[in-house]
Amino acid sequence: MMKQHQAHRAPLDLAGIGIGPFNLSLAAHLDAVGELEVRFFDQNESFAWHPGMMLPDVTLQTSFLKDLVSATHPVSPWSFLSYLVANRRFYAFLNADFPAIPRQEFASYLAWVAASLPRLQFGAQVREVDFDGRDFTVRLASETFRARNLALGVGLRPAIPQFLNRLRPEAAFHSSRAAFELARCAGKRVAVIGGGQSGAEIVLSLLNRGVGAPAHVDWISLRPNFLPLDETPFTNELFTPPYVASFHSLPEARRHTAVEREKLAGDGVSAETLQAIYRRLYVLRHLETGGPSTSLLPHREVINAEPMEHGCQLIMRNGMDGQMDIRKVDILVLATGYSYELPSCLAPLASRIDLDRSGRPRLDPDFAVRWDGPAASRIFALNAGLLSHGIAEPQLSLMAWRSAVIANALARRKAFDVERPETMVQWLDRMPQGAEAGGKA
Ligand SMILES: Cc1cc2nc3c(=O)[nH]c(=O)nc-3n(C[C@H](O)[C@H](O)[C@H](O)COP(=O)(O)OP(=O)(O)OC[C@H]3O[C@@H](n4cnc5c(N)ncnc54)[C@H](O)[C@@H]3O)c2cc1C
């Protein structure tokens, strides 16, 4: 039980837990709504967007127009264009004509908004959330707030296969720490596990290191090859509100199957990164001497990692011929992705929340969690709806639209136009009633 503190007197209309891009986008929308009393909290001292993956030359996988607000509130002062203008780089940005913009630029935009937008509180970890029968109580280290509604924007957790937990900390690290740890790989035998974008960016960074490069790099992927992100137009239709509405209306089992089928639309490696890796491998193999040697190992399932005095022994099954393979490595880089977990601060409410078989909360079309509390006390969950709203959920693509839907639900009016836009593809023969999320506003 947490130490009790005097709760601030008037309840907030909304307490936001976590300030990553998703709750930041919601905060930017609520700033325009105006009439609501809101406060957002983040445990970090200041805003930083995945700093552990800010490697040289990494780029945004989505258009910069899919920023915090533009899709739903293009006149907002918190748009990417406003950032360019305020920072006197509008013309230079246009002249640079980036095919994909540096991730550093987008992180800098997000940090600019986070530094200026009111009602954000950093250095404020939410330790416990409970419900007193009327309001939520949101406990921080030294203050407690009451709130009528919550927005959970706590992001995802690094996913680490269980057998890897036995390794010593110096023998392995997750990709979310790569920028801080890659220097340790100098002269070592390194295996990068994971054939997604993070794994690819880390492999490229290791191959490009020059002085300080590893002796050898294994790139291991469960997928049958190093597969590209599908960025073609009809696949991009999956990242639109009409698709989300159709997806949400499906029975749960069909939604699970669809997410599996659509994996490469959100999880593949961008074509530019694959090409950069291939070109670097060519140079290392044919034109330069002294660089790291490499083994590219797709279709390999790592089934165990035995700790050794230095590093570990990896045991893998080759999915192409079914043979087992054993490799010794000094350092393992786990580009094994992220998974959803109900935040621990919600423990007092966990048994009251309706969870699906993956442990995610079941969500209404407007991103409200189904729970057994009063209908007027709502818990909105962002980045939790992979299996309820589809593969756009963990991406930036629909962040502004989701924020507008939630803002409408909170304001109980159509503060933003979230009507279903025109779609090229007829996903279902009959659209579900009220499928426009936000119809509850
Ligand atoms: C390296 C990387 C690159 C990506 N690039 C792209 C891209 O190019 N395009 C795209 O569409 N998507 C991209 N994504 C996916 C997605 O856009 C990001 O993961 C995004 O940051 C998700 O935002 P979020 O707000 O849900 O979570 P996060 O950014 O993880 O933020 C969550 C915040 O919650 C805080 N928090 C957690 N618990 C508490 C607590 N109890 N109290 C207070 N604060 C708490 C954390 O400190 C953190 O600041 C990328 C993801 C990664 C990992």
TrEMBL record:
<keyword id="KW-0274">FAD</keyword>
<keyword id="KW-0560">Oxidoreductase</keyword>
<dbReference type="Pfam" id="PF13434">
    <property type="entry name" value="Lys_Orn_oxgnase"/>
</dbReference>
<comment type="pathway">
    <text>Siderophore biosynthesis.</text>
</comment>
<dbReference type="InterPro" id="IPR025700">
    <property type="entry name" value="Lys/Orn_oxygenase"/>
</dbReference>
<keyword id="KW-0285">Flavoprotein</keyword>
<protein>
    <submittedName>
        <fullName>Lysine N(6)-hydroxylase/L-ornithine N(5)-oxygenase family protein</fullName>
    </submittedName>
</protein>
<keyword id="KW-0521">NADP</keyword>
<dbReference type="InterPro" id="IPR036188">
    <property type="entry name" value="FAD/NAD-bd_sf"/>
</dbReference>
<comment type="similarity">
    <text>Belongs to the lysine N(6)-hydroxylase/L-ornithine N(5)-oxygenase family.</text>
</comment>
